[in-house]
Write a structure and sequence with these properties.
Blueprint lengths: L1 H14 L8 H15 L4 E8 L16 E8 L5 H6 L1 E5 L7 H4 L9 H12 L4 E5 L5 E4 L3 E6 L2 E4 L10 H12 L4 E3 L4 H5 L3 E6 L3 E8 L2 E2 L7 H13 L3
Bound molecules: pyridoxal-5'-phosphate.
């Protein structure tokens, strides 16, 4: 889904008024070069584009030419226990940014409140943290989108709740609709989150990971649910993973 990731890079740069001096083709050529050099089957790639170098100051015009950093490392398989037992989450005290402060749908390196939420989760021995918006509605986890299943319906918060439009999220919505599953983009609060029948995370690197406890209380029967397993199967089949 390289094209989708590059679309998001261009969208995000546009939203922060950051010109991109590279063409898409140049970036693809560089990624391909790095991948060829690394020569591994399963690779994690992080693309970092900066405004570039210049005098110290906030004025974006001080930097005139982007720097592009491509980090590629061999990616280990995700631990099987994530999928077999599910993961434990907390609801973080720190909130996700409001859209009119710093829209979380802009993918940038400005993740400090997510880092702090993750730190809170790690101190409590949890896998990750779920973040709310200032209206106390659920948004997403620190680097994944979040979903619940309630009475057979799959629900994920809408982008306007203040979250990153994940590429896995978009793909899964399409797959669910194609398979005539009930799916809605709708707000839900912490009570609705914790009383869901199933709950799971999505991201490019994690795919679909069941959440089996939140703040130490079990979700559903405390085991990965059947809809989550079905969606993982459909996601892998559709995207040939
Ligand atoms: C804040 C946040 N939400 C959601 C996601 C999942 O997005 P994707 O499915 O595109 O990997 C990420 C991934 O980096 C993220 O950083």
């Amino acid at each position: 889904m390289l094209e989708e990731h590059l679309d998001r890079l261009w969208y995000s740069a546009g939203k922060m008024d950051m010109p991109i001096d590279f063409t898409r083709e140049e970036i693809i050529t560089e990624i391909t070069r790095v991948l060829t050099q690394l020569d591994k089957e399963n690779v994690y790639i992080r693309l970092i584009l900066t405004r570039g170098e210049g005098e110290i100051g906030l004025d974006p015009n001080l930097a005139t030419k982007n720097n592009l950093v491509i980090i590629a490392i061999e990616k280990e398989e995700n631990p099987t226990w994530w999928y077999e037992s599910g993961v434990s989450m907390i609801v973080a005290h720190i909130h996700r940014n409001p859209i009119d402060a710093l829209d979380p749908n802009i993918k940038s390196g400005n993740y400090l409140n997510n880092v702090m939420a993750m730190s809170e989760a790690k101190k409590l021995g949890a896998f990750d943290a779920i973040m709310l918006n200032v209206d106390e509605q659920v948004t997403e986890a620190t680097t994944s989108n979040i979903w619940i299943v309630k009475d057979g319906c799959i629900i994920t918060p809408p982008i306007k709740a203040g979250l990153l439009g994940g590429i896995t999220r978009r793909s899964l919505i399409k797959i669910a609709k194609k398979n005539e599953l009930l799916i809605r983009e709708e707000n839900f609060n912490v009570d609705e989150l914790k009383s869901a029948d199933e709950c799971f995370l999505t991201s490019t690197t994690k795919l679909i990971v069941p959440i089996t406890t939140i703040d130490n209380s079990p979700i559903g029967d405390g085991k990965p649910g059947p809809m989550t397993s079905l969606l993982l199967k459909l996601y892998k089949e559709t995207n040939k993973i």
